[in-house]
Amino acid sequence: MSIVQNFEVFVPKLIEKREFFSPGHRACQGCGEVVALRLVLKALGENAIISNATGCMEIISSAYPHTAWMHPYIHVAFENTAAVASGVEAALKALRRKGKISDRYVKSVGVAGDGGTADIGLQALSGAVERGHDMIFVCLDNEAYMNTGIQRSSQTPFMASTTTSPAGKVIPGQRTEKKNMPEIMVAHRALYVATACPSYPIDLINKVKKAKNTAGPSYLHILSVCPTGWRSPSNETMKLGRLAVETGIFPLYEVEKGKYRITWEVGKRRPVEDYLKIQGRFRHLTPEHIKQIQEKVDREYELLLNKVKYSKSWA
Amino acid sequence: MEQKKWPETWREVTPGCIVFTPGSASTYKTGSWRAQKPVWDNSKCIKCGICYIFCPEACIHEDKNGYFYADLDYCKGCGICAHECWPQAIKMMEEEV
């Protein structure tokens, strides 16, 4: 432990130097999800076992004779990531009790995309969090089923155009709103729930470390920009993540035992137009549509501020 | 257990398709995907490390003087480092054939 780590000094150069996700993986150019995953693994350190759902991160990292992972890694189906992660945790506990493995503390981590978390894997995740396993579940949310070719999921934002919710003359893209996953996890009484974005790397690393030190279920929802599916330039990945936070579309907050706290204060929010106009999936929007989205974002942000103001810790 | 780069027959496929070498994806070079390459101007570099932290490939490394360079075997040329660099020390240059 160097002296610098005792203070809240955030210098990018001082984060973990070891890489736990090797280069040579097959992600698209400018993938925000890989940056998020890389930072999560750096924050976790070596004592972790990863259960990874099918999805972009599995496809790009483990094409058969190769793997990009340095951790013990198991690829599981879409629907049972959280079930396998909880099983890993229970097995570690049993083996440790019987004295078959060393006493070292190893965290079980489930990694899934938004489809593997919010759509297909929701019931397994619900069960795992309800049983109170000591695990982290990381949702890398790129807002559609990107690896099969941009199909809508329940995390696709309002009025985004995807291949299964195409924008036409009558219907402007996705007709439903983004499902509030962190809220569902708070309702499950997960001990630590947080939203993060790789555009704010130190914030993300701190949240993962906090989740790692929580003895109980914790859930991280990470917005990861997908240049391919969002139809945006590959070099503006980090800028888009920042705009999502600054416009209030994806506020960064954490919920510790029911107590909400905004971790990245945005003084005056930017208009959502700044975020929407550089993405091809929102290209079809008219000023009325943008006004509609702005109203929804304002309403959601107001609700979040109310929660921050009135929520109480249950512990 | 030593693994070949690709299994030649089905008999060489490991049971359960287990991969025994961690991080073996680095034997696969993705540098050929690139159309532009990042070039550092070390006179402008403030050694902050923001290019290192935002690189999706994990291919930017620090040299012994504290400056950064990209491993062009793996760099896919996305341009995040050049876009995020505050002092604009990184430029994307066309790849020469």
SSE diagram, text form:
The complex is a heterodimer of chains A (315) and B (97).
Chain A: H1 32-44, E1 48-53, H2 56-61, E2 73-76, H3 81-97, E3 107-113, H4 114-119, H5 122-131, E4 135-141, H6 181-187, E5 192-196, H7 201-212, E6 218-223, H8 227-230, H9 237-246, E7 253-256, E8 259-262, H10 273-276, H11 287-310
Parallel strand pairs in A: 1-2, 1-3, 3-4, 4-6, 5-6
Antiparallel strand pairs in A: 5-7, 7-8
Helix pairs in contact in A: 1-7, 3-5
Chain B: E1 36-40, H1 50-54, E2 60-62, E3 68-70, H2 80-84, E4 90-94
Antiparallel strand pairs in B: 1-4, 2-3
Protein architecture, described:
The complex is a heterodimer of chains A (315) and B (97). By secondary structure, chain A is an alpha/beta fold. Chain A has a single domain, classed as 3-Layer(aba) Sandwich (Rossmann fold). Chain A has 11 helices and 8 strands. The longest helix of chain A is centred in the last third of the chain and has 24 residues. Chain B is α+β, with helices and mostly antiparallel strands and 97 residues long. The mean pLDDT of chain B is 88. At the A-B interface, helix 1 and helix 9 of A face helix 1 and helix 2 of B.
Structural class of chain A: alpha/beta
Rough shape of chain B?
A: elongated
Q: Uncertain regions of chain A: pLDDT < 50 for 5+ in a row?
A: none
Proportion of residues in helical segments of chain A: 25-40%
Greatest interface by residues involved: A-B, 41 and 43 residues
Number of strands of chain B: 4
- Report the biggest beta sheet of chain A as strand number plus sense, adding barrel if it closes: 8 strands, mixed
Low-confidence stretches of chain B: none
What's the pLDDT, averaged over the residues of chain A?
Answer: 91
At the first level of CATH, the class of chain A is: Alpha Beta
